[in-house]
Amino acid sequence: MKVYPANLPSALPEAIKLLKGGSLVAFPTDTVYGVAAHAFLPQAVARLYTAKERPRERAIPLLLSKKEDLPLVARDIPPIAWPLIERFWPGGLTLVLFRKATLPDIVCAGGETVALRVPDHRLALALIEGTGAPLATTSANLSGRPEPVTADQVCQQLGARIDLILDGGPSPGGIPSTLVDLTISPPAVLRKGAIAVERLAELIPDLTLCNPPKVC
Questions:
Q1: pTM summary value
Q2: What is the DSSP string of the chain?
Q3: Mean pLDDT to the nearest integer, 61-84
């Protein structure tokens, strides 16, 4: 496992090369540090589950580089999705939508839905864009442990389980994204986070809260 300063000129190209080759890379986002695999390489996603000790029945969210990529991985997108995207993407809102059949089953834990977000973080966006594919990304911690906000915390939890950590200093958000399921009616908040429920309710008056909240 290597740790590179994120501003090192060779860091981004090396991280992209590793991701394209099926390796695992951790990096800061606009919420917490994440660890990612190429979403269309099932063997890489399998490594991600193993590294985090994450149960296989828990799907892994995808990070996109731009909202225009949404139809590449999601289908039957409801009209309410677009006002949410316009207001909160890029940013700390993850949307659950119906998946395209082209996504590997392991990403979606064999289910029919996928969680999607565009991060508001230059490094994360550059990684996704450079890889040329969505990144299956989850918090860079062992499953059930505190989400890391520094590279040192990632190293303490995942260490040799992953291939590279990009150290960009403390993550600016420090809390995970808000998770909203748009595949059910009425839509529901599955996890509270960076975007306040009150702000979401301005666009979705019938928004409900999942009780108990899901852990993602």
A1: 0.93
A2: -EEEETTSTTHHHHHHHHHHTT--EEE--SSS-EEEEETT-HHHHHHHHHHHT--TTS---EE-SSGGGHHHHEES--TTHHHHHHHHSSSSEEEEEEEPTTS-TTTTTTSSEEEEE--S-HHHHHHHHHHTS-EEEEESS-TTSPPPSSHHHHHHHTGGGSSEEEE-SS-SS-SPPEEEE-SSSS-EEEE--SS-HHHHHTT-TT-EE-SSPP--
A3: 96
DSSP state of 106: T
Which residues partner with 188 through β-bridges? 181, 208
pLDDT category of residue 211 using cuts at 50, 70 and 90: low
Query: Could you read off the pLDDT of 98-157 as tens digits, one per residue?
Result: 999 999 999 999 999 999 999 999 999 999 999 999 999 999 999 999 989 999 999 999
**Amino acid, res. 58:** R
Sort residue 4 into left (φ over 0), alpha (ψ -120 to 50) or beta.
Answer: beta
Contact 97, 116 (CB under 8 A): yes
Which amino acid is present at 177?
S
| Rounded Cα distance, 117 and 89, in Å | 7
CATH class of the 2-209 domain in this structure: alpha beta
Considering only CA atoms, which of 58, 62, 99 is closest in space to residue 214?
58
Domain boundaries of the chain, sorted by first residue:
2-209
CA 11 from centroid of its chain's CA atoms: 20
